[in-house]
Amino acid sequence: MKHRQHGRTVTRQHRRAASRKSSRRRLGRRILVTVSVLVLAAAGCGWYLYDDLARQIGSSHALDKNAPRSAGGATNILLMGLDSRKDQEGNDLPADVLQKLHAGSSDIGGYNTNTLILLHVPGNGGRAKAFSIPRDDFVEIPGHGKDKIKKAYGLAKAAKEDALVKQGVTDHGQLEREGREAGRKAEIETVRNFLGVPIDHFAEVNLAGFLHIADALDGVTVCLKHPVKDRYSGADFPAGKQTLNGPQSLAFVRQRHGLPAGDLDRTRRQQAFLASATQKLNSAGTFTDPLRLVRLLDVAKQDLVIDQGWDLLSFIQQAKNLSGGNVEFSTLPIERFGRHNGEDINVVDPQTIKRLVSKAIGANSDTPAPSSATPTAPSSSTSPTAEPKSGPTSSGPAAKTIDGGGIPCVD
Fold first, then answer.
1. Among 199, 189, 187, 128, residue whose Cα is nearest residue 157
2. How many CB atoms are closer than 10 A to CB 102?
3. CA distance 271 to 253
4. Theoretical Cys-Cys bridge with 338: which of 99, 150, 248, 347, CB 3.0 to 4.6 Å?
5. pLDDT digits (tens, 9 = 90+) for 286-318
6. Main-chain dihedrals φ then ψ at residue 242, nearest 5 degrees
């Protein structure tokens, strides 16, 4: 009898154990199914967001498909920041936005590309390099002659619109669209010829873009060596490390009055802003935070224009590797300051620039470098009394580097 009871006891234990095991299997299957559904939902949401972005973001045909392309999987991206108080359709920005910009009325600024940065992303996954081109560099602009590099966009836009008006075109939208396409094409060609390297993609952002990017990231951290107060840009900051909101960020990157090197210091501020923003993209979990990502995508839709055919989904994946210190920023050197038609300019040596950029990215430039480092003589239209170059970039051709891995302190 006891043996039978013991047998029944063992059987009941086996049944309970089997029941628990079966329950664990069912729970495991439920968890697996739930996780699978969440993964599929997330993937579906990601594709929906990408499809929505692809349909609504500004697209341009300005990039010449027959132009040279980078080899070995590398990518060169030209970033153009327009100093324009207009939206992508050429309409005035809303009054409340203009007030936040602290940049005057919509009639100011024109269509100068006050920010020009070539971003080189190597094909081997190495560290990317970003070259800032000072906006007043005196270069050859195709179809125009020598002028400040920032003017290529606006000059070509105005010329295209004038030609269309002579043909009887009166539609504001058509004039704006075709004018801007001509401007983009001219700026891309000017930079390509000046640097002597291919341009594979480009992105254009308007003045409000800095404001919206900073707001989408909940502020951008910067560091100043000295306190500043400038009524022109609205910059009013203490010395040291601080987090700036959208309007403050725009004032930070626009200030040039009261800085030791003027425009060159403004270029370094743009670099510091971008270095901090790329670092925050990674540290703030932007790529894993759906709400923050949606806010950034909204910024792209209202402030950004890119070349048609650029696979942004692939680049967003690549952008993860560009954040957190994997971008090295530098400013291309100038020879000295000068004057042209009553305006201040940067006198530059195109051959030195080509050689420097080519060496930095490990590519062959389109134009062979000169056999010596003797600077090219300035144009006859440049004042012979040009001032020697001064400021932080005066110690030779090497550009000052700002490391995106930290928060660089700037003037």
1. 187
2. 18
3. 9
4. 347
5. 666 667 767 777 777 777 888 988 877 677 666
6. -160, 155
Q: What is the DSSP letter of 379?
A: P
CB-based contacts of 69: which residues, under 8 Å, 6+ apart? 198, 200
Tokens matching residue 3: 């043996």
Distances (CA, A) of 42 to 29, 32, 143: 20, 15, 50
Distance separating alpha carbons of residues 256 and 83, to the nearest angstrom: 14
**How many Å apart are CA 207 and CA 92, to the nearest integer?**
12
Which residue bears the tokens 């300005």?
62
User: What does the alpha-carbon distance between residue 92 and residue 343 come to, in Å, rounded to a whole number?
Assistant: 27
Both tokens of 203, joined, read 């992105």
Tokens 């990502």 sit on residue: 293
Residue with the two structure tokens 């070995």: 72
Collect all residues with Cβ–Cβ distance below 8 Å to 107 and sequence separation of at least 6: 85
Residue-wise pLDDT for 168-197, tens only, equals: 999 988 999 999 999 999 999 999 999 999
Tell me how far apart the alpha carbons of residues 373 and 120 are, in angstroms, rounded to a whole number.
Answer: 24
Q: What are the tens digits of pLDDT across the range 153-173?
A: 999 999 999 999 999 999 988
Looking at the DSSP bridge assignments, the partners of residue 132 are 117, 331
**Rounded to the nearest 5 degrees, what angle is found at the Cα of 38, between the Cα atoms of 32 and 40?**
100
- With left for phi above 0 and alpha for psi between -120 and 50, is residue 391 left, alpha or beta? left
Beta strand ranges found along 37-153 (DSSP E)? 58-60, 75-82, 113-121, 128-132, 138-141, 145-148
> Phi, psi at residue 328, to the nearest 5°?
-105, 120
Residue with tokens 């000052």: 400
Instruction: Kindly give the pairing relationship between strand 240-244 and strand 75-82.
Output: unpaired
